Amino acid sequence: MGTSNQGELIPVAEPVFIGNEKTYVADCIDSTWISSSGKYIRLFEESFAEFCGVEHAVSCSNGTVALHVALLGLGVEPGDEVIIPTLTYVATANAVTYCGATPVLVDSEPVTWNMDPMLIESLVTSRTKGIIVVHLFGHPVDMDPIMAIAEKYGLFVLEDAAEAHGAEYKGRRAGSIGHAATFSFYGNKIITTGEGGMVVTNDDGLAARMRQLKGQGMQPGSRYWFPIVGYNYRMTNIEAAIGLAQLEQIDWHLARRRENAQWYAEFLGDCELVCLQPEMPWAKNVYWINSVVLGESVRLTRDEVMDALAAKSIETRPFFYPMHVLPIYEHLTGPEGYPVADMLSSRGINLPSSAKLTREDVARVSSALIYLVKAMR
Ligand SMILES: *Cc1c(COP(=O)(O)O)cnc(C)c1O
């Protein structure tokens, strides 16, 4: 492991444009349809709904507001409780807060790192409205037990599928299992529109409510008549044009990410000092981000490992802080704490995972990582 190994920067994520992105964006500009009407909005929504295997797709300005309109559309009100995993990106919790409702935090399970379905039922109260599941890093949540709890108590299930475009649970696409699902098209996601989001659902009434909410609340067919307080959460035609071009190539994007994961498994799978996210027999993981959790016997701290990788021009990210350690949400900490999420978040590293990675890149990341996890302090 000398400096000869240094090489070019390997970024943790990078968008890749191999299709009609430029052509469609140029078409928006040439036609002057650059705002939130135009054919690409409709085409992107229709194709995305078809991709997910659902009836409706409602485009939004980003994945966070997609969660917000979905929760409002599902009837979340001040005083309600919504059950969410503590180990997630902050947007999941924030969207609940925007509604004046309270996130109720659930620990992770150690195998897939997703919310532990076994811990949910005891958290249901008379104020619980629903459950948001997060398909973390692209591995779907075990949905059957969660749908059963929801059915038993009359709760909604919203899938936060921001990281899981194309993932499958028992052969069904992520986004088609809960009552609604949200996606993000931020620059580092599996497909991107720059900034952008989508809510999908099979519920006609919910889709109509969300369309009204994201369009300032205007009553359909009655220009400037606003019977409810809505929002401007619309996607632009330019963003949708990029999204449609990305979606046309999604099979390629998904295949590249699986190949990355296979390479990481090949190079790191035998190392007992790191644990990769698995793919359960009932799941198709889309490996949005390839990650490792450092074993207990690794002598360097997680941050020391990340710093040493950075010194070798290998960009990484730490796992999210769980919500219960953020000052804005620490008051939500439950009596048992969240030992699994704490362990994962203190030992987890997101590795370079762009669709542009080569086998040599993955080999370089993996050998640098193996060297570090074996190192003494
Ligand atoms: C990226 C992400 C979001 C939010 O998406 P934005 O488009 O950045 O607003 C929400 N939830 C999860 C789990 C995410 O990873």
Report on the structure:
The protein has 377 residues and is an alpha/beta fold. It has two domains: 21-248, Type I PLP-dependent aspartate aminotransferase-like (Major domain) (Aspartate Aminotransferase, domain 2); 250-375, Aspartate Aminotransferase, domain 1 (Alpha-Beta Complex), CATH 3.90.1150.10. It is 35% helix and 15% strand. The protein is built from eleven helices and 14 strands. It has helices at residues 21-31, 39-52, 63-73, 90-98, 143-153, 204-214, 237-248, 250-268, 302-311, 339-347, 359-374; strands spanning 56-60, 81-85, 102-106, 128-134, 156-160, 168-169, 172-173, 180-184, 197-201, 274-276, 283-284, 291-294, 317-318, 348-350. The strands form three sheets. Strands 1-9-8-5-4-2-3 form a seven-stranded mixed beta sheet, sandwiched between helices. It has a four-stranded antiparallel beta sheet with strand order 10-12-14-13. α4 (90-98) links the parallel β2 (81-85) and β3 (102-106). α2 runs parallel beside α7 (237-248) and α3 (63-73) crosses α6 (204-214). The longest helix is centred in the last third of the chain and has 19 residues, at 250-268. The protein is globular and about 70 Å long. It starts with 20 loop residues before the first helix and ends with a helix. It binds pyridoxal-5'-phosphate (PLP).
Biggest sheet, spatial arrangement of strands:
1-9-8-5-4-2-3
List of distinct ligands in this structure: pyridoxal-5'-phosphate
Order of helices and strands: HHEHEHEEHEEEEEHHHEEEHEHEH
Q: Any idea how many domains?
A: 2
* DSSP, total strands: 14
In CATH's first tier, which class of the largest domain applies?
Answer: Alpha Beta
| Termini separation | 17 Å
Give Rg in angstroms: 21 Å
Low-confidence stretches: none
CATH topology of the largest domain: Aspartate Aminotransferase, domain 2
Tell me the number of helical segments per DSSP (H or I, 4 or more residues long): 11
Shape: globular
User: Which CATH architecture of the largest domain is right?
Assistant: 3-Layer(aba) Sandwich
How much of the residues is beta strand, in percent? 5-15%
Structural class assignment? alpha/beta
Biggest sheet, open or closed, and with what strands and sense? 7 strands, mixed
How confident is the prediction overall: mean pLDDT? 96
